[in-house]
């Protein structure tokens, strides 16, 4: 339900809150993934919502309300640091996912939301089985700008940098996007990128990805609002609408530059 608050003029107005969890920002944020949180926060506010950002790190109290989860990438060491805590929260996270809470997991957390991640050295880190995927570290890294085609959001541009090869193996999980060139995407061979189940999206798209792809940020915000309030209702002022248009123009320019750069 929306919350009723008093404005400066003592007029009752409804504030539609969205509680957004930034998952392990201390250990899983090596490719600027905080930019995803900033983008969602800014755009949600411009649509008339009140975003509340909860930075959740190892050992923290879990927020009472969760409408959206954003998680970033990290090195193998970072994944090992957060693994035990992630498993302690696994039942809660799985329940939120099954209930339709949207989540965007980048690279390292994408891997840990699968069945397991086996490092290049052969150490197997179990995942929490939200997504039906598994990942195995390889000698060759896949690095560079990449454009994929997605069903929900059209063309998405990002920057991949990973040696793990991810395979989608569960009928309940589908590949999120398609790429055109071998040697890119989930594993370099089947032309898939990322995975999706429920409203949970896992992807290797760094960049950070949301500033260059506002349609994906808006998709997540819409899903979060629909989950909490039953619908997405923008209440932007003329000034806010103008700000959104400027942001979209900047994103389009950034998309064009990134998608045209050679790998």
Report on this structure.
Helix 1 (34-46) crosses helix 6 (214-229). A hairpin with a 2-residue loop joins strand 12 and strand 13 (200-203). Strands 1, 2, 3, 4, 5, 12 and 13 form a seven-stranded mixed beta sheet that branches. Strands 6, 7, 8, 9, 10 and 11 form a six-stranded mixed beta sheet that branches. The chain has a single domain, classed as Rossmann fold, CATH 3.40.50. Mean pLDDT is 90; it is low at 4-13. 32% of the residues lie in helices and 31% in strands. It has 263 residues and is an alpha/beta fold. It has helices at 34-46, 76-88, 90-98, 108-112, 209-212, 214-229, 238-260; strands at 3-6, 12-23, 49-56, 68-71, 103-106, 116-118, 124-126, 133-150, 154-168, 177-178, 192-193, 195-197, 200-203.
Low-confidence stretches: 4-13
CATH superfamily annotation = Class I glutamine amidotransferase (GATase) domain
Largest beta-sheet characterization = 7 strands, mixed
The name of the CATH architecture is 3-Layer(aba) Sandwich
| SSE ordering | EEHEEHHEHEEEEEEEEHHH
